[in-house]
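User: Can you predict the 3D structure for this chain?
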Amino acid sequence: MKLVSYCNRVIEYSFYVLFLLVPLFFAGAPSELFEFPKMWLTFVITILITSSWFAKMIFQRRIHIQRTPLDIPLLLFLIANIVSTIFSLDPHVSLWGFYSRFNGGLLSIISYIFLYYAFVSNLSIKHAFTILKVSLFAGLLVAVWGLPSHFGWDPTCYVFRGSFDTTCWTEAFRPTIRIFSTLGQPAWLAAYMSVLIPIAIAFAMKNSKLETRNSKQSQNTNNQNSKRFGNLNLENSNLFRISDFGFRIFLPISLLFYACLTYTDTRGGFIGFWIANLVFWAIIHLKKLFRNNFLKYFLTFNLLFLIFNFFSGIPISQLSGFTLPELSKNTQSIDATPTKPQPAAGALGGTDSGKIRLLVWKGAIDAWKEKPFFGTGVETFAYAYYKSRPIEHNLTSEWDYLYNKAHNEYLNYLTTTGIFGLGSYLAIVGVFLFQGLKYLNSKLETRNSKPDFAKASSGNAISKEVASPFRSFSVGGFRISDFGFRILIFGLIAGYISILVSNFFGFSVVIINLYFFLIPAFVFILGGMLSPEKILIFPNKKLGINLPAGKAGNQELRENKKITALQWLQIVILLLTSYFLLLSLYRYWVADIAYANGSNLNKGGAPQDAYPYLVQAVSLKNNEPIYKDELSLNMGTLAAALYLQKDASSAAELKNQAIALSDEVVRDHPNNIVFWKSRVRLFYTLAQGDPAHEKSYYAKALKSIEKSQELAPNDAKISYNLGVLMGQTGDFKKAIPVLENTVRIKPNYRDAYFALGLFYEEAGEREKAIQAYEYILKNIDPQDEQVKESLKSWGK
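Assistant: Here is the predicted structure, written as structure tokens:
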């Protein structure tokens, strides 16, 4: 049936597009340049693939789903995420994901699971092999795009600004120090490269010459086959030679990927690759696939990697002293004339990221203890962490950052989805690795001994178990043997392990989650681990069809080509549903662009220009609270300006709309601390513009910030603002204890000490005020001119 063939084509090429474009796709118009476009592209392709798959099943008049070893873990994982979303601190965030990234929300998890089953139910070995080649090609484009930025030439800046340099990035994004290419963040690029390098190595080692020879010989008779295998010398066989093509093409690609990995200067991805790399070679060694030549191939790749690190540096500080750049620095420092001591690297770069990560992990575990079974809600870490954040975090350089991830995928799932979520996630990992090891033990043991031809069936060429290691296939224009498949499977398993390691130090993004969910599908298909008998087939009895499984059912489908009215009705419903979903994604995309424009104009001091954009965003996506929150602040700013211009009627109208929007947002999302902070800003802004009612505005701002402190008891900035607001309302007796608590949880908080000194002075406690100011000069900033002037005015 041609319609089924068209559906197959759409599914096949959509997967090609998925692995080609997702790592490459970025856009300057949305609020987030990299992850948001990648997630939206994944949503669109998932809808196309799923719609084509469902249409195919409608045309075939049966539901066809391939059973896999991961069925139960995936089902449990999905259930855990659904339950966690229902009882979430913020169900909207749990459904869509944390705004601007969206990856990790329930909808993205559903998409990945749909893609997994669409893959195993519709694609073959040929398709899997081609997708792997497409993945490496995409990685090559990403590497070529990102590598020049290390030397000061960034193609992204050329696209955005027309200048082939790195000036389009702020100090927070310096690709000359840590490249990120089209992935958007160095750690994400490192994780991506660490997945691809083992796969590229596997392609480099795959023999193409012998496979062609084997395919011709596979047509021989039983006796010829027996003679061929019986005389096969496994020690010196060409089967273990790297072909010229594979070596010349994929070895340089592997080195290019490794260069990008090194230049990301990311420990997690670097460690992830090397652990995966050691596992890859350990499997080959233990299975004795290369015997005499193992050391040759092992050294070829790994010595080149290490030589590159020697000349270019290494992301591990404990090992970087052995590299040429560091050795050159040490030599120069010895020969140079002594100069004034320079600050340590940590002083310039802030608190060590490892120390901060440990504090975040501690807070993640404390947050999990509050809701141990199903967690705080999918993707709600940003709000859960506020309540359990350790006091010590206030002493780091990132004390006022919003942490929306635990920077450990496992703790992130533990906090947000509880033990059920993390347990099912680990079950996915455990079952896949178990099946992979089982495959290695069962399929590769025949490689280490001569075939037993006495046990071969007289009616067949050779038993499947014996012949399997030497079969040859034509896949994607190449001849590839079972040995080639196995090497690719080794590379895929190693790439999967790199994800597990890098996720321990960070978190998944869109492309990494695609590989996390689909690498098992690759392995199951390439390894022949999916049984045709284990397929769920539900015939559509309403159409009077009760098809048998297998060839008989397929024959009956071919003979019954007429499409009924009910089938057309189902297709129409499917098309309308797909159209509605795609339209919703499009409206969300346009709304986000409008929001990005409005938000940037707000921050740039042009609220009047921002207003129409924010109104457009809210009208396009009325259930997105981020848009309403930003519009509320914008209206508040405009209302305050109109009050100062004596336009009371227009100001009152905007003020009422702003407060109404804020009321709606905090009512529907009471656990989202970001919205409570915005509400404080709203009322504080209105108080500045309308002095006649400032007391009522301050009272509402005070109530809002008290709610904020309830949600984040150890947040020093919230505590400071609470104390300042209390002081501005004249309640010094309440303000002073709050500020005293602020400096307790953050002893180096200069502004809090200064405000405390002012309020001590207002309360008539001059000695305490002097002590507070002297503390600033002794322990925080000896050159603080404002403090010195205040002390001078007091006769000190």
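The CA atoms of residues 599 and 610 lie 7 Å apart. The first strand starts at residue 62 and ends at 66.
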